[in-house]
Specification:
Length: about 220
């Protein structure tokens, strides 16, 4: 869960840091598409939680309120997140306003951050239950991510927002064979190739300088 949340945080940080300097029409198109993809990916994650993981946990633990705080937090930022997604889908480069764009993000970002932070202790508290059973519920929820989004959008975003050096590189995330990154780079990322310029890492999960920054900034993104 920490790794998934870090994807969202790195993606939003990348948008917030770079968007003030995106001015060319083609770059604005890519920024809006990238941001729309972030919204879809967050929605896909929360869809899996709301529809599958949270009900499964409630039934298994016989505690209907076990994830109630997290569900309430979802509701607190969902409307703002949806408004940002709609703006990205309906706005042309000529209509784009950085002030409006930033205002939409600012309206929900604090609530989203609070949720991403608070959900981790909630998950850690589940350690009193058998790990195999919890893993089964998690895998089941993950199977439904494409009900909301598509591989050629969410996979390039996710791989480009993973840092293989996180906490000294001691984590194997994602838990997938090494060749999956090649498939993402040379297959899934091809359709919207220019969009992934906004990612803070390459598809091999190595951090890289941000592209849309003033010359006097080093382009490093602290996550």
């Amino acid at each position: 869960m920490v790794h998934v949340h870090n994807i969202f945080l790195r993606a939003l940080n990348s948008i917030i840091l770079q968007s003030p300097y995106v001015v060319k029409p083609g770059d604005i198109v890519d920024l809006l598409f990238y941001t729309k993809t972030v919204v879809i990916t967050i929605d896909a994650h929360h869809f899996g939680e709301e529809e599958y993981l949270f009900p499964a946990l409630a039934a298994y633990t016989k505690n209907q309120d076990i994830m109630s705080v997290n569900q309430a937090q979802h509701a607190a930022f969902h409307t703002g997140l949806s408004r940002l997604g709609e703006y990205c889908k309906s706005t042309s480069p000529a209509e784009y306003s950085y002030t409006t764009f930033k205002g939409l993000i600012d309206a929900f970002a604090p609530s989203l951050y609070e949720h991403l932070r608070d959900e981790i202790p909630t998950m850690l508290a589940l350690k009193v239950y058998p790990s195999d059973e919890l893993k089964r519920m998690w895998v089941q929820a993950e199977k439904h991510i494409t009900d909301v989004g598509s591989y050629d959008e969410m996979f390039p975003l996710a791989f480009g927002c993973m840092d293989r050096g996180f906490e000294g590189g001691r984590h194997k995330f994602p838990p997938a064979p090494w060749w999956v990154a090649w498939v993402v780079q040379y297959w899934f990322a091809r359709r919207h190739q220019s969009v992934w310029r906004f990612n803070p890492c390459d598809m091999w999960r190595v951090p890289r300088p941000l592209k849309f920054l003033p010359i006097d900034m080093d382009g490093e993104l602290d996550t």
